Amino acid sequence: MSSLWLGVRVGFGEIATHKFRSGLSMLGIIIGVAAVIGAVSIGEGMRDSVLSQLGEVGAADQMNIRGEPRWVKKDGEWRRNAIPQQLTWADARALDLGRAENRVLAVLPEVTGSVPARVGRVRRAVTFSGLRAGGTTAKQWTIRAGRDLVALDAGEQVALLGAKVARDFFPGVPERQVLGRELTLGGNRFVVIGLLEAQGSNLFQDLDDVVVVPIETAQKRLAVTADLSRIVIQLRDPHDAPEVERWVRTILAANHDGGENFRVDREEAILERISNVALLINATLGGIAGISLLVGGIGIMNIMLASVTERTREIGIRKAIGATSSDVLAQFLMESATVTVVGGVLGVTFGMGLGRGLARAMTLFLSEPVAAKFSPLVLLLAVLFSGAVGLFFGIMPARRAASMDPIESLRTE
Questions:
Q1: Virtual CA dihedral for 124, 130, 134, 139, nearest 10 degrees?
Q2: Neighbouring residues of 33: CB distance < 8 A, sequence distance ≥ 6
Q3: pTM, 2 dp
Q4: Which of 110, 250, 251, 284 is the most buried if burial means most Cβ atoms within 10 Å?
Q5: What value does the CA radius of gyration of the chain take, rounded to a whole number of Å?
Q6: Please, are residues 288 and 38 in contact by the beta-carbon 8 Å criterion?
Q7: For a pLDDT cut of 70, what percent of the chain falls above it?
Q8: What is the pLDDT of residues 177-223, one digit of tens each?
Q9: CB of 1 within 8 A of CB of 319?
């Protein structure tokens, strides 16, 4: 034990005596650990941000059904779909009637798209969402002013405005005075009947930059199609998703002569894929940063070999007064580990600063809050791994020192 503590003390003494040399030897360790901490903290922070945004809109309880894609996989090969089948009102009615043995809370058909909008001199494209009465409630959207869509609005040119749309097209106008105003969408005049509460953004879109209209009006006036863009299934329990998905595919296959190429996206599965991708990215970045640790370890080994050569006489004196080869081996191993642990602690410190700096930069760039997330376990493992690198790469110099003959060592000037 005395050899271990002696090694630690001598290690700190070497760092203090040879600051420049010790700094160069620790540089690879510092860069590697800082890169690992910075990358993992940002990866975990973005993962939590994405999952929380999806969770806020009830994503874990939803299932999205879309029509056939333009490209389908048949007989193991991707081929262009000549006549892609799309969702229809018949599909929505069939799903609504079945309700999958009470596993489904709501079936929400939707028509979406983008159209040019205009109010006076303000013009730009907006996203529209065609819903039927009760659709905003199913989507957990709150009406801030005015009223929601009702059954009598079917086919009428009325609209609910998201918070951003209301600000952009009616700047400075009090909320109550926006109600009853007209907004031109795709050349059609719509009367504003309600304003939506601000919701922010999720992974896929700005939820405040949307105009909600009756679904029948969206089909006839805006999208000009009889098809549905998607059907959202709201589940009573997310654990029922596999059974509901099988039921959905059975209904759609029956309605479309056996066609089974409809996309059924379970939001819970999307969350799992996001988590897996984040884990893969963190592992990849950690592997790349590990190269810096390897380079740093080689630098530590070279420095320790030089230190053994410089301290040959010291080693001879220690052995002459009773130190065993095991004592010398332990001393030099602990010196090497001390240098790398100090480098690991500095790397953790710089890595936390790097993570916070990257989080601020991404927040400004993405206009979305991203916070670096630091796990105490990851920080501790980074420091311990640094020490392990020192022990591993310190073995050769330590064995060389331990194997020296004390008489030959004392003759060295």
A1: -70
A2: 289, 293, 343, 344, 346, 347, 348, 350, 351, 382, 383, 385, 386
A3: 0.57
A4: 110
A5: 33
A6: no
A7: 72
A8: 999 999 999 999 999 999 999 887 665 567 889 999 999 999 999 99
A9: no
